[in-house]
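Kef-type K+ transport system, membrane component (Ignavibacterium album), 709 aa
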Amino acid sequence: MHIEILTLLLQLFALLSLAKILAEIAQRFNLPIVVGEIFAGIILGPSLLGNFQFYREYFLPDSNSINYIDVFVLIGSMLLLFIAGLQTDIKLLKHYSRNAIVITIFSFAVSFLFTFSLLQFIAPLIFSGFEKSSLLSLFVSSTLAISAISVVAKVLIDLNFIRRDFGQLAVAIGMIDETIIWIIISVLLGFVSATEFSVNRILYSTIKVIGFIALGTIIGKILISRFIILTQNILKLKYKFISLTFLTIFLFGLIAQFLNLEPVLGAFIAGLIFSQIPGLLDDTIDKIESLTFSVFAPIFFASAGLKVDIRDFADFNILILSLLITIFASFGKAIGAYLSARFISKFNHWLALSLSISLNTRGTIQIIIATIGLATGIISQEIFSAIIIASVISSLSAPIMMKLVIKKIEPSEEEIFRLKKEETFQKSILSKINRVLVPVRLRSDFDVTNIKTIETKLLEKINSKKPLMVTLLTVVSENEKMIAQNFLNNLQSKLETLKVDKRIIVSEKPLESILNNLKTGYDLLVVGATEKVNTNDSVINPFIDHLIKLAPCYSLIISSSVKYQNKNLNKILVPVDGSLASKRAAELAFSFSDPEKDEVHLLRVIERKSNNEQLIPDLTMLDRQYEYAKAILDSIKEIGESFQIRTFTRIEVGESPENVILRAANEYEFDLVVIGTEIKPGTEKLYLGPRVERILNNCSCPVAVFNSQ
């Protein structure tokens, strides 16, 4: 065991260090870093350093011993596919599904026919002793007719193309490719032990793969989303989401392996599931990506180079056969992809050419399948070497060619707009909001039929843009628990468009209970300030006062009354003063606005001093203030336009900004005023600022105060 551990540590150190060094060199020469990582494996493998006896004994274990590095390779491939699934846009996949299916079928079929013809009809004529085998030809042709989605995804990520339309289309084709190959391989492996072709066996293999993808995605989404809620509410561990993510990856990999599929397929499905579930923190994703691309991915690609033995080229027949297989498979894939993309899907020349090159990327999936074929006796050692060489050649050449051609793809106006919108969204405050806590007080006089409060309307509008995980929380005494359960069930039944979780806490300390729940990872606290008190001119009651002051997350205070419950929130006013708080308030307004129905008005008030303070107006100063105000409004208006929201700007001058805002809200009949503020704890009551408090008390429409500090 001592030797095995020593060998493993030596392999990890050598592979990772040399892979990073050569990746750095490749990047400096403007090459994909995958090229450098694969070359690291070639240098450390049997091709070069493996020729030295002492090195080979400690670094390259023989085929009869356990190679523990394969565990790291497996984890690396699963993490790469998980990230590829995580960055896959389901809506874009559906949008391009027709084109993806057409290009996949044509590119696979042409490549398959080219390679099958070579092995079945041409190779026996060229190479003496080459035994023609239909099973072998089917196996090799199918193996080399597909794309290695892990390599494609890595190159697209390196080139920052994974979110482009081209990147999503390439990933979709790669996903369909791998679905096809696992169906075919499952059938072919069945033929090894079977004496004849069986339609039932083909149907079983097909249903198994497609069923795993479909059911895994649908059922997995339901179960994982509920498990995330459970984890968030119960566990207080620091890295609980990272643990949950890895558990999901391993679970789906386990299921795939149990079904005699490949664990990487399960990892990809896990990524697809998480891409559709709100609540996975950006920090968690960043940590997983950092670990993958800094450690596991370099080891994964370097290990592919380890399997290459240049000495196989010494056999002239293997050399020629490998080159012919590579040429026939690649040429067929390129022709099928280009013609179908260019003339059936009507893509332009550069997009079709880029697809024909990117889909010729082969790698670990071919190595995995070739290993299966060798172990089951379908292929010989010579054919195995030919597949490995063909895979490595395409893995090295395709990324280089991709980088040269992919830059020629001109994005459409629709794609530019989508990318700009995504970039704006990622920078906006909404991208940081996934979990929302809504504390509700148990009320016997509450009319459930009139549940559509301003708070719920706002949450429903935000949820239409980005799925939220909303928790209704109530704190009651022990004898009120059953009543509270019915109360929350009634509330949930009326909030059909929201994904709602219910929590009932039995406690005599409601403030402490709510704050403890907020610490479990909530991003936004939503409270109503409808029950005002008149003590010391307080705008909201003391309980809400303390809750907002101590909340560890963003908060949204809604001030409204019953007469506004049926009001549509289509016309929104956002006062802007140049602060970060007001900008984030505008972002929030844009995020829940409907491009077809709503409009957002940005108001900048230039404060004019009273005549006692300034007898002669400074026109130069006023002009400068106008220019500054216009610049502020224009910059925020661009954000609104990126969300496709009708955005209007207005500059007004007044001695009292709050009076101007109140007059505008009443005169132009706004449905909602959204104010951004930095809430600071006061000595006795919540300090919103006298101007904000005056607006809350006197506004003719509902007011939402958003604290993003």
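The radius of gyration is 31 Å. The beta strands are 435-439, 469-476, 499-506, 524-528, 554-559, 571-575, 599-607, 646-654, 672-677, 703-707. ok done for today
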